[in-house]
Structures are given as structure tokens and as C-alpha cells.
Amino acid sequence: MSEKQFAATVLSWFDQHGRKHLPWQQEKSAYNTWISEIMLQQTQVAAVIPYYQRFMARFPTVNSLAEAPIDEVLHHWTGLGYYARARNLHKAAQMVVREFNGQFPQDPQLLEQLPGVGRSTAAAISSIAFGTQAAILDGNVKRVLARYLAIEGWTGSTSVQNQLWLAAESLTPTSRNGDYTQAMMDLGATLCTRSKPKCSQCPLVESCKAYAEDRVTELPTPRPKKTQPVKQTHMLVIRDGDSFLLQQRPPTGIWGGLWSFPETPDLRDLEPEWQFDSSKAQVLAPFRHTFSHYHLDITPVIVEKNQLDLSHVMEARATLWYNTEQPQEIGLAAPVKALLNTLGSAL
């Protein structure tokens, strides 16, 4: 199958079977596309849809997002994970307003200057919103091309990525670029899936090398396995009735800028302001939260406010009392939100 035939086949399939009713497809714009593409990084479509709808209802324009407090942006992101995406969205919105007069540039190379926007995301925004001829290479497209061309090796390695980029660029057509971009993502998301691919329904099956060689389940080559380390932490759940003390985490790193309970790996190493009588505390059963590169075992320790002297803490740190009956709109780490919900319902 020639490169032109490849694109024509994919587009013909898209016209009949492609997804055209997703919320961000109804009023195509660079802003809508950008928000959806960032949310869809590391996250499934079904999970993104309600977040996207709430986010767009609150931040309908790039200006409204740029002007919003970061706490409110993180609040609307709570539960989606990978919070650096939300912080970068906020920074990028301010950059679009400041440096591009509130208008997204069409040039993918200019879009790549925005925080959190890489080569593939820039191409997706440009092709979908403006019809630019620009190749994408997200996880779905990597999988389609690795199987179609029987490219071996982990797709995250530089050498394999270079091969895939060359293929993606050569196969990208000169017309209907937005539809082609969406079609390739749809193929990977709905047919050429990671497990149990629906090869019999795929428009490319007759030319797919992996299918011809009976290697569909082998490709793409899995990432080399690493044993994920396990870390331990205690969360101090300082309670005053139906309110709980939270402090804001540093702006970078895990849960950057979010509000969380005070933490310590070891209760014996508490800072002076968090010292309390451990015999009067209630230690709850630990639970596990898994990040992309390690597991975190969290042990909640409930401490009543009257056991601590918090005067210095409240002055020196960014803290607040979070009321479970009237919750503030702030960004919360997922396990913190879950724990607050559990504690609130138990009161």
C-alpha cells in the first residue's frame, strides 16, 4: 500500500466509523483542542469527558484561564492526576495572552514553545484546529505504526521514536489533515488497542506486517520492566470538628501546588510544630497510592487540634482549615480528597 493509499484508507474508515461526537469536536478551536489534548495525555477519553465539560464551563476562553487563580485551576483538575499538566496549562494560557495577544499560533514550532506542549501535541492542535500538515505521534499512533510496519523495540527509546517519526511524517497527507490526525488516534484507541486488538475490523489489516507475521500481540515491544520501589509516609490528619488542617505543597514536585495533609516518613522525626502525644492519636489502616514510577503507602494519623500548638504553623506556612460540610474550591491530591470524603462521611 502506497503512502497516499494509506491516508486514503484511514480517512475512508474515519468517515464511516470515526468518533465525531466528543465534546471538544463540536466547536473546533485551538483552545478547545489544546485543553482536550493535554487532558488526554495519560488519561482515557471516558474519564476526560466530565472533567473537560466542567473545566470548559468554568474556563471557556484562554483569557479566563489565564486570569484564574492557580488554586481554582488545580481544583478543577483534582482527580485527573499528573498535576504538572494543570500547572503548565495555566502558565501556557498566560503566555498565549501575553505573547500572542490571546490567539494561538498556527505554526507547530511556535506552539511547542508553550509549557507542557511537545512536538506531537503541537502538531495535533495545529492540524485539528487549523488544518496544518503536521504529523502526530501519541501513544495510539505509535502502536498503529509499530504494528503496521513491524517496528521492533520499545517505542519510548530514541532510536525507535526516530523511526516512527519518519513513518508518521511520510504517511501524513497534504489534505484533510485534521481528520487524518483524529482518524489515526481513533484507530489506536478503538481498534488497534493494546490488548485484544480488533484486527478483523481494521482497514489496514491487509497491509499490516505484524498481522501478516502473526506478531500483533508482540508489538509494540513492551517497555523493559522495572520493579517499582515502595515509599512510606504518614499523613497527619489534624481535626477540629468537621474541619481538617491542610497545607499547600511546594509548587514543583509530586502534587506540586496542591493542598495536602502534613506528611512525615517517620513519626519519630516530626518537626517541633507537629509534635503530639502519640498515645492519644488514632492510627488508621495504611492504603497505597501508585504513581507512574513508585508506590506510596500512606498511613493516616488522626490528631485532635487541641493536642498541638498551631499558632506558629498558621503564621509560617500556607495552611487552611478545610471544612467537609462546606468544602473550598482548592486543588487536592487524589488520596487526600478520598480521605477527606471518607472522614467527612464518618463524622
Protein model, in words:
The chain has two domains: 3-212, Orthogonal Bundle (Endonuclease III, domain 1), CATH 1.10.340.30; 230-346, Nucleoside Triphosphate Pyrophosphohydrolase. The mean pLDDT is 93. It has helices at 3-17, 23-26, 30-40, 45-58, 62-67, 70-77, 84-99, 108-111, 119-130, 139-148, 158-171, 177-191, 209-212, 311-316, 334-346; strands spanning 230-240, 243-248, 259-260, 263-264, 282-283, 287-290, 295-304, 319-323. Strand 1 (230-240) and strand 2 (243-248) form a beta hairpin. Helices cover 44% and strands 12% of the residues. Strands 1, 2, 3, 4, 5, 6, 7 and 8 form an eight-stranded mixed sheet that branches. The chain contains 15 helices and eight strands. The protein is of the alpha+beta class and 347 residues long.
Q: What's the structural domain tally? A: 2
Order of helices and strands: HHHHHHHHHHHHHEEEEEEEHEH
Based on CA inertia axes, which overall geometry fits? elongated
Cα(first) to Cα(last) distance is: 65 Å
CATH class of the largest domain: Mainly Alpha
Q: What is the CATH-assigned architecture of the largest domain?
A: Orthogonal Bundle
What ranges have pLDDT less than 50 throughout 5 or more consecutive residues? none
Our count of helices gives 15
What would you call the quaternary organization?
single chain
